[in-house]
Specification:
126 residues, alpha+beta, Beta-Lactamase, five-stranded antiparallel β-sheet, 3 helices
Length: 126
């Protein structure tokens, strides 16, 4: 899938990017991966990504007061990095999430978040 490969290539061009993947969060399956993964295990990272997204979508704590408001992204910060999860909203079944792992020193959270928004939009346009 050229759209997926290009998306990941562009994600790795984000300053501070360590690794990136596209995950089917209903199954935890990594559709495509590149770069490094936490603990060097892309499958475990994909399963963890799926767990986090499913937990956020299913808990009342994260439900918006705005009717039909959709979860866009999740950001997890650690002492050494940022983990950004951007849901890919499609017209048919929206089950993909774009995951990028950033080095905290070299990455810029705001820039990365905006770039991921564009990448997710471009991914569904291809």
């Amino acid at each position: 899938m050229p759209g997926v490969e290009n998306c990941l290539q562009e994600a790795m061009a984000i300053p501070g990017a360590i690794g990136a993947s596209i995950v089917d969060y209903t199954t935890g399956f990594p559709v495509a991966t590149t770069g490094a993964a936490p603990n060097e295990d892309h499958e475990a990272a994909a399963a963890g990504t799926a767990d986090v997204v499913q937990a956020a979508q299913s808990r009342a704590l994260f439900v918006s007061a705005v009717p039909h408001d959709l979860l866009e992204d999740l950001i997890i910060t650690t002492a050494g990095g940022y983990h950004l999860l951007r849901l890919v909203q499609t017209d048919f079944d929206s089950r993909l999430v774009l995951y990028v792992w950033l080095d905290r020193i070299h990455g810029n959270l705001a820039v990365a978040r905006r770039r991921m928004q564009t990448l997710a939009d471009e991914l569904i346009a291809t």
